[in-house]
Amino acid sequence: MRKLVAIITLHYSFIYGGLLQCFALQQALRKLGMDTIVVDYRPKRARLFQIALNVLKPKSQIRNAELLENQFTFFERITKMFVKASNVFIIGRRNLKFIKKHMSTTRAYYTPEDLEKTPPKADAFVCGSDQIWNTSMPFEKKEIRPYFLTFAPDDTSIIAYAPSMGGITIGDDYKEDVQHFLSRFSALSAREQLVVDECRACGCQGAIPLVLDPALLLDKDDYYAVMGVKENDKPPYLCSFFRQAKKHEVLQKIKQFNTPLNRPWVDMSFDYSSLPDKYEFNRGPINWLNRINHAQHVITDSFHATAYSLIFHTDFHSVALSMGKEGSNNRLSELLGKVGLQDRLVSSEDIINNPEATFTSAPIDWEKVDRELAEQRERSLDFLREALK
Fold this sequence. Notes:
The protein is α/β, with parallel strands linked by helices. The protein contains 15 helices and eleven strands. It has helices at residues 16-31, 48-56, 58-67, 74-102, 112-117, 175-182, 193-201, 220-227, 248-258, 285-294, 303-312, 329-338, 348-353, 355-358, 366-387; strands spanning 4-8, 35-41, 105-109, 124-127, 157-160, 238-241, 265-267, 278-279, 297-300, 315-319, 345-346. The strands form two sheets. A six-stranded parallel beta sheet has the order 8-7-6-9-10-11. It has a five-stranded parallel beta sheet with strand order 3-2-1-4-5. Strand 1 (4-8), helix 1 and strand 2 form a beta-alpha-beta unit. The two termini are 13 Å apart.
């Protein structure tokens, strides 16, 4: 009889990476012979209306203007603000369409109390991956509880697969609760070393292996089956995807680098800019994957866009986060370190000072990358096999 595994993660979002890593974990577990169901947990501050409202708040706009050195006009800032807010709803709807087509979910749960009172029935519960244990995220304190599987019955397997804290240590007001939450787990793993260190600080004694993000548990053929792709050709276009707003000068330097190459620049960033030749952030997860797959070159600050560049053998450079988000860069540095591509992590200052030198790197040895990922993929799957025995 096949085991039923319930997954909880940040799947309900306007972020493609969070959605796709959940899909990947579901598929990987199914390939291991499990039945799966995704817990459709929708805390208030993760709902689309609340996210759009936060984007429109004057305080948010003032902070963005200060971080970006007030380099955009009032009209440009207003345009960016409303493009962001509308994108939240458009992308959210398209992500929901993907969920309905490709994923099995429970009924919607809107509060931790509801989830803890009437949890879904399953043989095992898995939390992860993505930044589910980032205690600095804009949740009420109680809303983060389900991401530590507080709703899972004691007589089931309680497993953490590749959780991340987003480069943020556990907040002092969370530590006592987290110590209790972690004591219930039957198997722990982590995506980054910081999570291992924080679990140790909370008294965890057993093995806590580092495992791959779920996105990397699948290979390109697994994704091609969903994308409808048969060939991996590389038309000559540059693709950019930035989670964090970038200074205008950075974007100008990217354009300066790209223009002599006579190829279009397609931008899929959350923050709108008129500099790229084409802007298409809100086309949905399949288009997002296809754009990364078919691009000649990807420039991104996204962990998952970097991961999919590795999977699809797309030349890329990852831009380190700045403006108070530097702690999150360990995600990228650890991922690239696993495949020997640390030189592909660059800074905004590198781009401003010399874009041509920054984006001109030795060709990637894709056979080596594939070997490294295959070995780590098998170790990661071994963790799941053992945890789900």
